[in-house]
Amino acid sequence: MVEINSSDIIASFDVDAQNCFTPLCPEELPVPDGHTIANALNAQAELAHWRVASKDAHPVSAVWVASKENPQLTPLSGHANSDLYWNLHAVPGTYGFELLEGLPAVTDYDFFVWKGIEPDLHPYGACYHDLADTRSTGVIEFLRDRNTRTVLVGGLALDFCVKVTVLQLLQAGFRVIVNLSATRSLTEVTEQQAMTQMREAGAEFINSLDELVFS
Ligand code: VGL
């Protein structure tokens, strides 16, 4: 059980809950079962005062697009803000770019982040546009301005963009609760590493919203 003080301001964060991270887009970055989390994200948002979200928004000309010579997940050098090659994903105007079916329209969120728009920027976390965490996307300021104490986090994928967003929110001083029913991982190995890293940084975890107790 994870206790939350009823007077705390709570935010709900949908990280990159886009079709490109589901088996519906097998050519992009399919996360097993990634398409099944919309209801869990909506339920989580019901408990929150603010609902924020992010989307990857990548150009076709990105420097990190994987090829035969440079396959996915191999290191990329010479670009300070792109570290690995990835299959092209989340191109605005495509189906993969869109939020999962069942989620609100972008304009119905209280704050929305688009990230990775520049061809040589491939940030994972939703709080900064660069890998050095220096160029804010504004979401931390939005949450701070509203006295947010606790952030409930879900989205895709747990082992990459969700993980880094969680670490950034913890670093910024928020209490962070990862809702495991509202997130999925790209691989089991990276999931284990991500869970350890988040736990060591102070994240809390729930398997379902039933594990939250309001006192
Ligand atoms: C993601 C890998 C590459 C994610 C994005 O949203 O988790 N993972 N780009």
UniProtKB/TrEMBL annotation:
UniProt KW keywords: Hydrolase, Metal-binding, Pyridine nucleotide biosynthesis
Designated name of the protein: nicotinamidase
PANTHER family: LD05707P, PYRAZINAMIDASE/NICOTINAMIDASE
Record InterPro entries: Isochorismatase-like_dom, Isochorismatase-like_sf, Isochorismatase_Nicotinamidase
Species name: Endozoicomonas euniceicola
Pathway: Cofactor biosynthesis; nicotinate biosynthesis; nicotinate from nicotinamide: step 1/1
Keyword Metal-binding on entry: yes
UniProt entry tagged with the keyword Hydrolase: yes
Family (UniProt): Belongs to the isochorismatase family.
SUPFAM superfamilies named among the record's database cross-references: Isochorismatase-like hydrolases
Its EC number(s): 3.5.1.19
Occurrences of domain Isochorismatase-like (ranges): 15-207
